Amino acid sequence: MKKKYKVLSSYIIALLLLTSSANSQDEYIIEDNLLYSNDLITQVNFLFSNEKNNDNASLSPVYKASKGKSVNDEWIRKVVLGDINNKSERDNGYADFSTQSTNIIIGEKQEIVIHPGWTGTIYQESYCVWIDYNQDGDFEDANEQVVAVNKSKENFIKENFVVPATAKTGATRMRVSMKYTGLPSSDENFDFGEVEDYTVVITSQDLLGVKNPASEIISIYPNPSSNFINVNTNDSNIIVEIFSNSGVLLINSNENKIDISDLSKGVYTVKVILGENILYQKLTKI
């Protein structure tokens, strides 16, 4: 029987989960203002990690699990997309690389390269990639499957996709799946192959390569920084949002000077809204 808990407070939900049977096979996921989860400890940790003295704190989506049951013969050896250039060994059928991220740009062509790993025999591998464009916690919406390559024995596959205009800006999940023989689904547990999750930051401009008009009127400094960042504009009527690599909103401010001392060391995404101008920039906390 599926259990539902209304998201009134992270502490209340954690208490409800802890009083449930630890051996329960019930599935819980987040859906609107209801919580469902199939992993008791992970879900409790998730709730408290997103709670910062605020019972109304935003919760990140919980994605359905997917993995390969065996990586003895084949696995995902390397994934390349923008700033993501990740080489890995066999990771028990699933690897969470969501701390690795790159910007992808609405309306522009992106190129992803996936390399398989084999222990000996070269097998036919099928590949799928999904991006949660509307950030609703699944890969089931139109256009969210961006790659589908069936039964390839090539040493790598190289595919292009275009980020749709309807994509929601900000950090979101990308899932890469490689399955022996047929095409995998986004939540499938299959016999042979591997699944890896990453983060992509959907933007309207690629600040690393294409000149953004907003950058002429908005600047963020110092970067890297350990304590504060300054948002320099000609207008004090701004909104500044700072997101984690997993897409969690950590800071929302209307100030030009932002205290980031409580953030852990790492890379974050800063979104600055000034009227019709929007600036995205990576921030390194040291």
Short description, anyone?
The chain is 7% helix and 45% strand. With 286 residues, it is mostly beta strands.
Question: Which helices and strands, and how do they pair?
Answer:
Blueprint (H helix, E strand, L loop, with lengths): L4 E2 L3 H9 L11 E2 L2 E2 L4 H10 L17 E4 L3 E8 L2 E4 L6 E12 L3 E10 L6 E7 L13 E8 L4 E6 L7 E11 L8 E15 L15 E3 L6 E5 L6 E5 L5 E5 L3 E3 L6 E9 L2 E9 L1
Parallel strand pairs: 4-13, 7-13
Antiparallel strand pairs: 1-3, 2-3, 5-6, 5-8, 8-11, 9-10, 9-12, 12-13, 14-15, 15-18, 16-17, 16-19, 19-20
Structural account:
The chain has 286 residues and is mainly beta. The chain folds into three domains: 45 residues, no CATH class; 137 residues, Sandwich (Immunoglobulin-like); 73 residues, Immunoglobulin-like (Sandwich). The chain is 7% helix and 45% strand. It is built from two helices and 20 strands. Strands 4, 7, 9, 10, 12 and 13 form a six-stranded mixed sheet that branches. Strands 6-5-8-11 form a four-stranded antiparallel sheet, with no helix packed on it. A hairpin with a 2-residue loop joins strand 2 and strand 3. Helix 1 runs antiparallel to helix 2. It is elongated, with a radius of gyration of 20 Å. The N and C termini lie far apart (46 Å). The N terminus is likely disordered.
Q: Under CATH, the topology of the largest domain is which? A: Immunoglobulin-like
User: Which second-level CATH architecture of the largest domain applies?
Assistant: Sandwich
CATH class of the largest domain: Mainly Beta
- The low-confidence parts are 1-58, 206-210
With helices defined by DSSP (H or I, 4 residues minimum), what is the helix count? 2
What structural class do the secondary elements suggest?
mainly beta
Helix content: under 10%
Rg estimate, integer Å: 20 Å
Number of strands: 20
Overall morphology: elongated
Distance between the termini: 46 Å
What number of domains?
3
Q: Give, in order, the helices and strands.
A: EHEEHEEEEEEEEEEEEEEEEE
**CATH homologous superfamily title of the largest domain:** Immunoglobulins
Estimate what percentage of residues fall within beta strands: over 45%
Mean pLDDT comes to 79
- Major sheet size, sense and barrel closure: 6 strands, mixed
